[in-house]
């Protein structure tokens, strides 16, 4: 009797369209591997969906709020249903960029200097740029993925516009020191201590940074494998990724985004459910080690099934 997998995708977040692509790609891969697959464009009533599907495991291909933030994971925990990816706590921690940055500091990992604001206590551009030691600042909503709501601000006007844009999406906003360098990402699969670091990818976006359009529009970015960084930077990036995977309690698969400048490596954020089409970053890294998309998806499901109680 084949294993029954419920694939959740879609959802209500700003990353809905990407989630649908990920979910359908995962579903097709699982069918090729002989699984019984039930696809569901998740909106609500998770209990009813799981009850009707009666799956052996749930593959969560939801991105952003209500999927990557521990919400769905918590519901599945209450129903005692195994699911792919990280736990409730780890998912919530990584979705919140501010808490992640506090944790990076706690475990001795470099991350860009930052300030954070609520709507009613922002500070002017001149003060923040002096505080962070840079005229170029990165403004981010605290709990969005796929670089949604991000602005590179270089003056008072773009700073104020960036804050307004970010506050449309979140009640809390981070302002970071902009670090110019090579954008890289490190994917890890497995469960600690049996984890495997995939080849580091260098991302060359068409725009100033790896924004939403660069991520999801064909030919708008290049993935270079292996990344063109020094052996020191490679070793440091891998060490940072492994440390984060362990200390954050990540499971099955994750992607850690970083910047490598002329002398160092800085961690930007952690993605617990990164994009999962056949041309997404994690599958690309796996492909560089001759791991097919179908085998990668199968591996993740098998890892999750080991947690079945």
UniProtKB/TrEMBL annotation:
Mg(2+) 2 binds at residues 269, 271. InterPro entries: ATP-grasp (IPR011761), ATP_grasp_subdomain_1 (IPR013815), D-Ala_lig_Van_CS (IPR000291), D_ala_D_ala (IPR005905), Dala_Dala_lig_C (IPR011095), Dala_Dala_lig_N (IPR011127), PreATP-grasp_dom_sf (IPR016185). The keyword Cell wall biogenesis/degradation applies. Pathway: Cell wall biogenesis; peptidoglycan biosynthesis. Signal peptide: none annotated. It catalyses: 2 D-alanine + ATP = D-alanyl-D-alanine + ADP + phosphate + H(+). Binds 2 magnesium or manganese ions per subunit. It is found in: Cytoplasm. Keywords: ATP-binding, Cell shape, Cell wall biogenesis/degradation, Cytoplasm, Ligase, Magnesium, Manganese, Metal-binding, Nucleotide-binding, Peptidoglycan synthesis. Pfam families: Dala_Dala_lig_C, Dala_Dala_lig_N. HAMAP family: Dala_Dala_lig (MF_00047). Belongs to the D-alanine--D-alanine ligase family. Cell wall formation. This is D-alanine--D-alanine ligase.
């Amino acid at each position: 009797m084949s294993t029954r997998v419920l694939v959740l995708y879609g959802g209500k977040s700003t990353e809905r369209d990407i989630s649908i692509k990920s979910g359908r790609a995962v579903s097709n891969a699982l069918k090729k591997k002989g699984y019984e697959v039930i696809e569901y464009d998740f909106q609500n009533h998770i209990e009813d969906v799981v009850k009707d599907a009666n799956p052996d495991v749930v593959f969560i291909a939801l991105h952003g709020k209500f999927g990557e933030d521990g919400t769905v994971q918590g519901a599945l925990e209450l129903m005692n249903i195994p699911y792919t990816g990280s736990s409730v706590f780890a998912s919530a921690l990584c979705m919140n960029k501010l808490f992640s940055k506090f944790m990076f500091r706690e475990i001795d990992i470099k991350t860009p200097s930052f300030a954070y604001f609520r709507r009613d206590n922002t500070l002017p551009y001149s003060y923040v740029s002096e505080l962070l030691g840079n005229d170029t600042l990165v403004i981010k909503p605290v709990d969005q993925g796929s670089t949604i709501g991000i602005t590179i601000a270089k003056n008072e006007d773009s700073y104020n516009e960036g804050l307004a844009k970010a506050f449309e999406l979140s009640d809390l906003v981070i302002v970071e020191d902009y670090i110019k360098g090579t954008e890289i990402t490190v994917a890890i699969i497995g469960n600690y201590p049996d984890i495997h670091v995939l080849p580091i990818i260098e991302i060359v976006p068409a725009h100033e940074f790896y924004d939403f359009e660069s991520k999801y529009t064909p030919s708008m970015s290049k993935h270079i494998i292996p990344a063109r960084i020094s052996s020191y930077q490679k070793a440091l990036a891998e060490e940072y990724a492994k440390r984060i995977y362990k200390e954050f309690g990540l499971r099955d698969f994750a992607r850690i985004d970083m910047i490598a400048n002329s002398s160092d490596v800085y961690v930007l954020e952690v993605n617990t459910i990164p994009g999962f089409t056949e041309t997404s970053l994690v599958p690309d890294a796996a492909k560089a080690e001759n791991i097919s998309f179908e085998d990668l998806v199968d591996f993740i499901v098998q890892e999750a099934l080991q947690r079945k109680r």
